[in-house]
Design brief:
This protein is an alpha/beta fold and 296 residues long. The chain is built from ten helices and ten strands. It starts with 6 loop residues before the first helix and ends with a helix.
């Protein structure tokens, strides 16, 4: 028999974790504020750990709460999805990818997907943690790395990884304009969690070194790109993630030097998926979108 806390306690915790507020969670669940608080206290007692810090204006998750919330949320999502997919006309495909790839590449193309396949709903699971096809209800994953990704998985190349420097077009003209890697000495380097800047500069400058450079660090590539669009400095990114921004002149590549890596982007799916027809359809659509960008 499974050892599981009461469902109402888990629902109260999940809703409170999303809203970080007992009152808003109570409104969503159509119960009283006191009932939600009591369910959460009961869950904390069962688990013998504190899940929230209580503040005058709301809540914040403890370290234990932050670890517990994502799998509980995924469990409820899977229950909802399992219920939804019982309806024959409602076809759902779940794609796992990173938040930056979802924001910069996939989400802008979802409108086209809806036009091409109006009977298929796409559900995005955006996380930096690789999804498990067996337990997370994922049909397709977009992963960056080197194939193969594991036994029982098929990986199709979406596009290769080319790292380029990008900035707002205003930084490529006027005072301290950027025309070469050496000019980066006068600008802020926007660094993401991948930490590409030292390797990129070594490859671009050789034995030369930039003196007194300033850096700003971001946890996500998409945040570094947004900062570059906002004229806050120069970011490093995969060309594929900023193709639309380059075309629309929101960003520019101030110098031609780029760096290729072995960590390409792949569409990954189980060799024996739950819905082979659906997976093939969406995989082919993703690859077509990449081909149309002329970057594959």
């Amino acid at each position: 028999m499974r050892s599981m806390p009461p469902l109402n306690s888990l629902k109260a915790f999940e809703a409170s974790g999303r809203h970080l507020n007992f009152r808003l969670a109570a409104e969503e669940l159509n119960v009283t504020h006191g009932a939600v608080a009591q369910h959460v206290r009961s869950l904390e007692k069962i688990l013998n750990m504190k899940l929230f810090h209580r503040h005058a204006r709301g809540l914040s998750l403890t370290d234990d709460g932050r670890r517990y919330l994502p799998p509980i949320r995924r469990a409820f999502d899977m229950i909802a999805e399992a219920t939804e997919t019982l309806t024959p006309k409602d076809v759902v495909v779940t794609i796992s990818t990173t938040p930056s790839f979802a924001t910069r590449w996939l989400v802008p193309r979802l409108g086209q997907f809806s036009e091409d396949y109006p009977d298929i709903r796409m559900r995005l699971d955006a996380s930096n943690t690789p999804a498990n096809f067996q337990t997370d209800g994922v049909d397709i994953a977009i992963r960056q790395g080197q194939s193969p990704f594991g036994p029982g998985l098929i990986a199709d190349n979406l596009f290769d990884s080319e790292i380029i420097a990008v900035c707002h077009p205003d930084l490529a003209k006027g005072e301290n304009a950027i025309h070469s890697p050496e000019d980066l000495a006068h600008h802020v380097l926007l660094e993401d969690a991948h930490g590409h800047w030292p390797i990129f500069l070594q490859a671009a400058l050789g034995d030369k070194q930039l003196q007194n450079t300033k850096t700003t660090n971001f946890s996500l590539t998409s945040l570094a790109i947004d900062a570059a669009i906002a004229r806050q400095g120069v970011a490093l990114t995969n060309r594929a993630l900023v193709m639309d921004d380059l075309r629309e002149n929101r960003l520019c590549q101030p110098f031609a030097f780029s760096q290729s890596t072995h960590a390409a982007f792949y569409v990954v799916a189980p060799r024996e998926p739950r819905n082979p027809t659906l997976v093939t359809c969406v995989r082919d659509w993703l690859i077509k979108q990449a081909q149309e960008m002329n970057i594959q």
